[in-house]
Amino acid sequence: MSGHPGNPEPLSPRAKLAVTAGKAAAAVSRAAGRGSGSVIGGRVALKLDPDLLGRLAQHLDVVLVSATNGKTTTTRLIAEALRASGPVVSNALGANMPAGITSALAGGSDAKYGVIEVDEKYLAGVARDTTPKAIALLNLSRDQLDRAAETRMLAEKWREGLNGSKAVVIANADDPLIVWAASSSPNVVWVAVGQEWKDDAWSCPSCGGVLQRPGDDWFCGECGFRRPAPSWALSGDHVLDPHGSAWPIRLQLPGRANKANAATSAAVAAVFGVPPQVALERMYQVQAVAGRYDVVTFQDRQLRLLLAKNPAGWLETFSLIDQPPTPVILSVNARGADGTDTSWLWDVDYGRLAGHPIMVIGDRRLDLAVRLEVAGVDFRVCETLDEAVAMAPPGQIELIANYTAFQDVRRRVGN
Amino acid sequence: MSDSSLRVVWVYPDLLSTYGDQGNVLVVERRARQRGLSVERVDVRSDQPVPTSGDIYLVGGGEDRPQRLAAERLRRDGGLSRAASNGAIIFSVCAGYQILGHEFVNDLGAREPGLGLLDVTTVRGEGARCVGDVLADIDPHLGLPQLTGFENHQGVTHLGPTARPFARTVFGNGNGTGDGTEGAYNDTVFGTYMHGPVMARNPQIADLMLKLALDVNALPPTDDRWYEALRAERIAAASQPA
Fold first, then answer.
1. Distance, CA of A375 to chain centre
2. Fewer CB within 10 Å of terminal CB in chain B, N or C?
């Protein structure tokens, strides 16, 4: 490790200038009403000092978090857990490419830990630049079909990037692609936290054979690649630690996927000497993450805001919503940040929403309408969020939206 | 039709189901049931034999490595080729379309033999990947309205003398050959680059497959208002690219 929180090596004059210039650019961007300014600030700073990210990270114990789903939430849970042991700096708002990460780290000069969410495509590079002490890998599945790399290629890049890394890799033993990515690393802590979505891992990542998946196990009948024995596991509402002790998970965040995120976070915290009990207690504080899971009052109804960006995310979200007759509003866009191909809607089993009153909104509500019509469930197409909410009786509403649709909803409800 | 129920075979969901083309199975199944037909859906994983007694076979798109694995296993198995010679209806998309041709370029850059069920050959395009909404006019012999879909491929597919172009593009690339052709077909085997999924945006293609499989000229009407609304929106969007 390179972090010496008590006695930080001072930043070079050039690095200091870069941080100052970055902060100035961020302030200008904020003043111009262009968002938080974190990305533009980071871009300016990195231009002045391309090694800045590495230099900022030098003073920290760094944890990287990457995945297709759950990285923002898990980053937040790990940050809360590690605060038990010292100040934390984190890109909590999800600006997860190098410029956003640089900007976030520049704002935490007195931190001991840097807990960093990293976009999947940038993981290998950021791991090289920041010499992390721990890397958490949660899951990989299809996302943004019109422009994303193949999931297996992504796993392969991670595998090459992590080969020989000194970091402890905390990796999900239940996702074959994650196991393939992590198993080149000399120091892996396997956590068994499940993955409901299985349709991107029927082929062996090693030899291409068909994976056999009896119960919770998986293995390749052809080359012998198989699920490693986990040392941590999620078991119902408990985390099992390597000593066999079961620690209750109490979260304000809903759903199985967040219990999985908490179990992984507890294993990460243990790397830094924070015991599971302490880590899990601190995670209870987390109520909403960048607006996700937040319950807002709008037109006398309580809307719970749920983000689901890809088939695996929708599947996990369906398993956490309240039973019928709780109304559900679905909103889907296909703008640049969402991916412009909506075909993925057909990989999601919308039949699971049968019995809920369903309202559909968003730029691509007609794609949703055809999807639901073919699934044989009843729905109403609405022009706006206001109209959809007005269709539901007073009470709770579950709202599930993909990326830009979620931002649209947050803007409308003032969240 | 082999017996009382229509057998719809979904080929290799473990390898060729990455781009939502499973929707074609769901649309065919739904529209058959709406006409009072009983449907048996058969999902065939790539370590299982492809049954030869299906009425309609659907083959979807997939990524480059799974595409090679699928071609290897379909050649070795032989079931899909036997079904084709029995006269089964086969509808394929993107990577699946390429596999049904004579050959394509695989993930290792080598020429990979296909099944030769369609008289087409695919090479890798030199230009930018073809990604986006497509609008095309379907071969008038088929009597179908305009084709709307979403393409996402690097392949360029050349048609031989016994394959007819499925459609002529109005917007978008289709086969990528620069001559405006999109997809290919013969009497019983169809291929297209269109995702969307294509049958969700063009339910009459699903109906055509049903008519061919059942050997009938017409089917009872269905309530298609949401399909029609989606079609109108996507056709307008393709005509006025952002």
1. 29
2. C
| pLDDT tens-digit series, residues A291-336 | 899 999 999 999 999 999 999 999 999 999 999 999 999 999 999 9
- CATH number for the region A13-283 comes to 3.40.1190.10
Other C-beta atoms closer than 10 Å to the C-beta of A33 total: 6
Q: Using an 8 Å CB-CB cutoff, list residues of chain B that contact chain A.
A: 13-15, 17-23, 26-27, 30, 45-47, 63-66, 69, 131-132, 150, 152, 195-197, 200-201, 226-227, 229-230, 233
CATH 1.20.58.100 fits A295-413, yes or no: no
B106 domain residue, yes or no: yes
Q: B230, A202: Cβ pair inside 8 Å? A: no
**Domains of chain A by residue range:** 13-283, 295-413
Confidence of residue B31 (pLDDT cuts 50, 70, 90): very high
Structure-block tokens of residue B203: 């339910």
B contact test, residue of A346, A364, A365, A382 with most B CBs within 10 A: A346
Q: Write out B95-107 in H/E/C secondary structure.
A: HHHHHHCCEEECC
Interface contacts (A, B; CB < 8 Å): 92
Give a yes or no: residue B1 inside a domain. Answer: no
| ipTM of this predicted structure | 0.96
Domains A13-283 and A295-413 share a fold: no
Beta-bridge partner residues of A381: A360
Number of domains present in the structure of chain B: 1
Output the domain CATH number for residue B112.
3.40.50.880
A357: which 2 tokens?
């009153």
Task: Report yes or no on B51 lying in a domain.
Answer: yes
